[in-house]
Amino acid sequence: MTVITLSGYRKTVKWIRAGLFLGFFGLAALMLLLGAGFLYMKLLGEPEVAVPQSTLYFAADGQVIGESHTGEKRYWVNLDQVSPYLLQATLAVEDKKFFNHHGFDFKRMAGAAVADIKAMAKVQGASTITQQYARNLYLSHDKTWKRKLSEAMYTIRIEMNYSKDQILEGYLNTIYYGHGAYGIEAASQFYFGKSAERLTLAEASMLAGIPKGPSIYSPIASLANAKERQHIILREMEKSGVITATQSKRASAEKVRITGEHLHTDVKTAPYFRSAVQQVLADKLGIDEQTIALGGLRVYTTLNREHQQIAEQTIKKVIAADSDIQPAFVSISPKTHYVTALVGGKDFSDSSYNRAVQAIRQPGSTFKPFLYYAALENGYTPATQLKSEKSSFLYDNGRKVYKPSNFNHRYADKDVTMEQALAVSDNIYAVKTHLFLKPETLVETAERFGISTPLKPLPSLALGTSGVRVLEMVNAYATMANGGKYEEPVFIKRVEDASGKVIYEHKSESEQRLDKKQTAVLTHMMTGMFDKNLSSYANVTGASLAPKMTRPYAGKSGSTAYDYWMIGFTPQLAAGVWTGYDNGKEVTKSDDKRYPKKIWLNFMEDAHNGKPVKNFPKPKGVTAVDINPENGKIASSHCPVTRKMYFVKGTEPEEYCTDHLPKKKKSNDKKKEESWLERLFPLF
User: Fold this and answer.
1) 150 is catalytic
2) Which of 67, 68, 83, 94 is labelled catalytic?
3) In degrees to the nearest 10, what's the CA dihedral of 461, 463, 469, 474?
4) What is the pLDDT of residue 34?
5) pLDDT surpasses 80 at 505
């Protein structure tokens, strides 16, 4: 029998008290530590959710024309855009108690640990949806204690700062379903060719089984494994009471149709247009490249898919496949200044250099309409005459000489009207006008039309020797077609972020930069390049196009040794084409020189097919007068050639042409005398 002495009893009590004291303070310290940890994580706030998502580009009709991603196709959707069957199937197989725990299912974790110990291997998972979400967002899948600790911390932070619906939505949009499909929407589109909200029970139960092992349970990798996993999920759903035995049996027997095709795989649709859109997103809207590429943006553009297709097909048909000539093309709707089509080269896969918006090339005579608008503002009229002859011009205070020439050195060697000079592209008339107005006048006028590239106020500027971009030239012509209302070219109508919030919406900022009446006069002058009545000492520059035209066009062609252009418009559409060599080589072949006009007319005719024919407006204050184009005077019925010209009222010619009136016959006095005598003396 053990006898406890008083001293022994006292020692035992002492140790018990010490143990209780230490235990209490240890527990308090642990609670304090845990509290501090939770407080620290609370102060950290919600962890940033930065999931790469595909940015989508839409045409004006709402059709997707492109997508940017880095191999992770993901289209974020809200929970209400996901089939209830998929939600139920996912919860049944991944985390039945998701809505009842706070990030960790301790009972399930204990059960998994026992199962692993018995099997002496990792045979059962116990991660909750929140834990998997944390792992997908922030961590690698390495099986280390450090990773597990980080996962636990992120799990707590997610649970502390997000609702269960937000967590489930995030999980479904980040989980990998195989074959490059990240998130339920991309997976649903890939496997079944439909949106996630339209999934049937059979499809949903099959999809829910894939994340456990995409390379094993994908129906494309192994339909047998996918069906086996589907049966398990259906049984779990039945056990959970979310479906009936009949529904389970029917879904299990249903034969699902697997498509195995990703959405938006066509990277050929308007690649140069999309590159221009991306440039606008970065330069004009200030969106960083990472967000543009992987921010899940929805970019609604101005692209007209029909116009784009016509432009691409026309260029391919006209330019020889073995030619090194490069094209640039832009079409713009004048009323809105929406860019409806854009081509920046023959083949984007060969060269992504966008010649429509990046290249600066000499516009040649396509620059002359700006000069003649300035002339109209400074007292000229379409009937104003200057002499077309071989000429030399002194400039720079007489220290330099400029000797322009007309095409093929053809000169009228007499006075010609401004309207005819524009139609036949007389260079002498243009330079004389330019120097009379002073070169700075043309620089300022071109800037009003929207030409932003720096221009040199030289005598040769009248002939388009200062480089410009195709986009700004076509937009300048669209400004004419819009009655002188200018607006920057518009590529984007609206941009939404990944959550559907509108972060940019275009609002028109059109500005009446040009006089409506003078613009109408200039526009009518530009129809002259197709009117053979203005051919004389030289043919009008659009003579080859006129027989193929089905409606009125206004336009201007232009060329240098290295650049060939054609730009023109109707009230509904403006379009322009440039062709040339990237290396600045001279264009020498006759067929190559004809490319721009052919492309332009084919495009305009096809783009307007079925559209009503519209004449150019003649605003109040503008009058139309029949003029003899040879002398600029009001035509008479005897003039062999006439051209209806527009004038601002009060500036039209007052003098009538008398050059072609019938000449009076000379009188024969002898005959008249005989006739008088015969009448007086009929007997004689």
Assistant:
1) no
2) 94
3) 120
4) 54
5) yes
